[in-house]
Amino acid sequence: MRAVGAAGVLTSGEVTDETEYQLSQPIRAAVSESQGVMYVADFKNDRVLVVSLASMSVQCVLTAGTMRRPYRICMDDNGLLYVGSWETGQVLVYNIC
Predict the structure, then answer these.
(1) CB–CB of 83/75 below 8 Å?
(2) How is domain 2-12+25-95 classified at the CATH fold level?
């Protein structure tokens, strides 16, 4: 699974310490059955968690320096994940494929 860091760089790896990933006002979710994951907008923690549907464990975290209060989240048919940021009014686009 890939994650986008603060610099917008794709990295790979699996999250192993799930105690760090307690949700604080999860507000929306999007599911990709083809990828077997659910994306959860964690509003007060300024991030999107990527959760495996098979194990229900966090696989990675999407963050960006401009992501402040992710509010809306959806995927398109091309595998792009759109995250609306409440505080900045921006829509961040992640290429998840």
Answers:
(1) no
(2) Thrombin, subunit H (2.40.10)
